[in-house]
Amino acid sequence: MAINFTPHEVKLNLKNKTKLKAFLKESFAREGQGLKSLQYVFCSDEYLLEINQQFLQHDTLTDIVTFELGTDPKVTEGEIYISVDRVKENAFKFQVSEEQELHRVIFHGALHLCGYKDKGKVHAATMRNKENEYLSLYFGDK
């Protein structure tokens, strides 16, 4: 069960990678989802826009794109692309630290791979509650 964090042409200060990997593994188990492999790619707005256009036919900036690559719905083999530019801008917009916003998006991608959706008010509210739950579990009452 491998989890990797790869910056693609961006600088990234991701602290406590070993702790984060262990927490993500526990999170998948908590959600009842197997985990075979998970690749996080941290990139620029431009790079993620190309991915969004090419694979999803969306011509918009986004903070995250998630792909399930496996064939077994009970075991995740995924790739998650995160725009560091969007994370920084959203941290400023929502008045949270870049570290907290980065982790929110990291957990958001994992939750998608566990079957959570975020389209529509009810799904979006459920996703936000789960993100907050995992942020609280990971950071404590910071």
Structure overview:
With 142 residues, this protein is α/β, with parallel strands linked by helices. It has a single domain (2-139), classed as Collagenase (Catalytic Domain) (3-Layer(aba) Sandwich). 51% of the residues lie in helices and 21% in strands. The chain has five helices and four strands. Strands 1-2-4-3 form a four-stranded mixed beta sheet, sandwiched between helices. The radius of gyration is 14 Å and the shape is globular. The model has no long low-confidence stretch (mean pLDDT 95).
What is the H-and-E element order? EHEHEEHHH
Number of domains in the coordinates? 1
Count the DSSP helices.
Answer: 5
Which class in CATH terms?
Alpha Beta
Strand content: 15-25%
Mean pLDDT: 95
Helicity range: 40-55%
Uncertain segments: none
Q: Per the principal axes of the C-alpha atoms, what is the gross shape?
A: globular
**Biggest sheet, in brief?**
4 strands, mixed
The CATH topology: Collagenase (Catalytic Domain)
> What gap, in angstroms, lies between the N and C termini?
29 Å
GO molecular function: metalloendopeptidase activity; RNA endonuclease activity; zinc ion binding
Cofactor: Zn(2+)
GO cellular component, one term: cytoplasm
Organism: Chitinophaga oryziterrae
In short:
With 142 residues, the protein is an alpha/beta fold.
What's the topology here?
Blueprint: E1 2-7, H1 17-30, E2 34-43, H2 45-56, E3 64-68, E4 75-83, H3 84-94, H4 98-113, H5 121-139
Parallel strand pairs: 1-2, 2-4
Antiparallel strand pairs: 3-4
Helix pairs in contact: 3-4, 4-5
